[in-house]
Amino acid sequence: MWSRLSKKPRRSTAWRRRRCAAELNDQLRRDRDAAVAENEALRCLTEEDARLQEDNNRLQRRVEELRRSWRRYRRRTTLCAGLAGEYQSLKEHVADIEISAHRRTEEFRAKAMERLAQCIAQQRVWCRQRRSTYLTMNAALSQQLRARPGGGRQRGLHRL
Hints:
This protein has one helix at 13-147. The protein is mainly alpha-helical.
């Protein structure tokens, strides 16, 4: 059977059905292969999603742990800041006490040096007065001894 227009043999209906079936099978095979590939891609994406979800959960737990730790350190810092303020206040108070004690020590030292200088001056005056008195007494005794017969040389001074 030939086609009237193309001079090609006409194909039978069975052959056309087989050809349609083959094309349909090829199309179904391509669709199946595409579906299998898409299914594999979705499976890989699902596994990746599950892994990422697990990583996300692990990171969220770590974030919460770090937040608790941060809060704990924040409380400690606040406590330490209060203690540091008290320490600084005590340190300044002790420094004021030391400065005051040093000032009083210097004042005491200055007064002691002044008093010592006064005592030395008084002692020098007293020593000069005593020396003058002893010189006067010595001169008087020497004259008395010279006025005695024999000049007091033979008798001891203990008998005077």
